[in-house]
Design brief:
Layout: E1 23-29, E2 32-38, H1 48-62, E3 69-74, H2 95-114, E4 120-124, E5 127-129, H3 131-137, E6 141-145, E7 149-151, H4 163-173, H5 175-184, E8 187-189, H6 190-195, E9 201-203, H7 208-221, H8 224-238, H9 244-247, H10 257-268
Parallel strand pairs: 2-3, 3-4, 4-6, 5-7, 6-9
Antiparallel strand pairs: 1-2, 7-8
Helix pairs in contact: 1-2, 4-5
Length: about 270
């Protein structure tokens, strides 16, 4: 049996044209579920509505006692290229809206993935950047294609990673790589992330989807209550507490000149002038 949950935005298109609509697809096949990030024109970059739909998808899965494993993937040969920057001017320069975006919309979705009571397998192809890296960091097993690239080059956009998101990625990726990604806008290969312990396996790109499904199938064949107990124990062991003082004033940069310049330069397709 297959079910589907989607979050849709009004398409931007001319008469007679068909546009891809950003959404999150949830498909169920017996004890397995597949969650697909879909925003093809932007390499599955996350829109605000996609964050809300991702949270809703996992909250529905988390309440399902028959579920044994989830595969999380992107559509069309890319995992997720980050946030959909075309939306940023509409809310990022207001501190209250920016805080709501990160603390409610983004963290709400990431927390729902982290709270999933069964193993989550990430099938990573192509770009795994920014928001994609954060989503992948929530998963239990990460498989990636040889052509995958990983990073969080938001220094080019003039803003830092939000505190809870930084703690999540730091724990999953490791100190050295995270510092390079955030300070130097470093982008790294799948092989480098394998060496860092972020990835379980690196495969030929064409084999990632099948390998993720096979991994999920193996998990589903084993003791489900043991898997849930292991997931709970590992989640508690890995729990990262963000000090309250880190959140105080965390979004005060919203209206800063460099924040506006970084986002504006990206949208204007020019180098930023900091």
């Amino acid at each position: 049996m297959s079910t589907q949950s989607q979050a849709r935005m009004p398409p931007a298109q001319g008469p007679g044209e068909t546009a891809a609509v950003p959404d999150i697809r949830l498909e169920r096949h017996g004890a397995l579920a597949t969650v697909t990030l879909s925003n093809l024109p932007r390499l599955n970059a996350m829109t605000r509505s996609m964050w809300l739909a991702l949270r809703a998808a996992f909250e529905s899965l988390n309440a399902d006692a028959d579920l044994r494993c989830v595969v999380l993937r992107g559509e069309g040969g890319s995992f997720c290229a980050g946030g959909d920057i075309s939306e940023y001017p509409g809310f990022r320069f207001d501190e209250a809206q920016l805080a709501h975006f990160h603390e409610v919309q983004v963290w709400g979705a990431l927390h729902a993935i982290l709270e999933c009571p069964v193993p989550v397998v990430a099938a990573i192809e192509g770009a795994c950047m920014g928001a994609g890296l954060e989503i992948a960091s929530c998963c239990d097993i990460r498989l990636a294609g040889e052509g995958s690239r990983f990073g969080a080059p938001i220094a080019r956009l003039g803003f830092p990673m939000a505190p809870r998101e930084a703690a999540l990625v730091h724990a999953a990726v490791g100190d050295a790589l995270v510092r390079d990604m955030l300070f130097c806008a470093g982008v790294h290969t799948a092989e480098r992330l394998l060496q860092a312990g972020f990835l379980l396996r690196v495969l030929p790109d064409a084999q990632v989807a099948a390998a993720a499904q096979a991994c999920a199938g193996r998990i589903a064949e084993l003791a489900p209550l043991a898997a849930r107990a292991n997931k709970r124990n590992l989640r508690l062991l890995a729990a990262t507490r963000v000090a309250p003082e880190l959140l105080e004033g965390a979004y005060g940069y919203a209206d800063s000149p460099e924040h506006r310049e970084g986002v504006g330069a990206f949208l204007d397709k020019r180098p930023p002038r900091f």
